[in-house]
Design a protein that fits this description.
Length: 196
Amino acid sequence: MNIKSQAFPVAISARHIHVSEKDLQALFGPNATLTKDFDLSQPGQFAAKERVSIEGPKGVIHNVRVLGPVRAATQVEISRTDAMKLGLNPPLRQSGDIENSASIKLIHQQREVLIEQGVIIAQAHIHMTEEDAKALEVHNNEIVSVEVDSERPVTFRAVVVRVSNDFSLEMHIDTDEANAGFIAQQAQGRIVKSCS
Ligand SMILES: [Zn+2]
């Protein structure tokens, strides 16, 4: 029998980049800071007005949005479709886990930075507070399956639960995952648990 938990919002993350202070200066000039465009749903996170081009061995993608605030290490999150266009084979990882991930060149006007690692395909995950985790009966780093209703419904497996009181309840998938399931912004997901 399958048990479904309460529904939560599913958000689609388009390709984006988190930059370190060092790479921000290298790309946008000394003393550059990020300019907030709009707030994202996770508290403190924002979409910046700054954009960069990313170049791999087979292609380039322009206008990739930078998200703020700055981080300790630069991280580029792209879809598998993007990776093919760029000629890269980035690993499927959780945000922050960039050891031995793919390399890429970042470009802004005449400035370029080659990052040795930092390109990942983000593993689908659900942000939630401790209270949400209790209500959904899951714990931090638990791997769950999530069903998302749509015209072409899909169930995502290997979805990571990420618990922190700095988060707000929301599942994040990339554009390939959204497109596969005909999922638009505002979709709702439910954790599906099988029990005997
Ligand atoms: Zn996320």
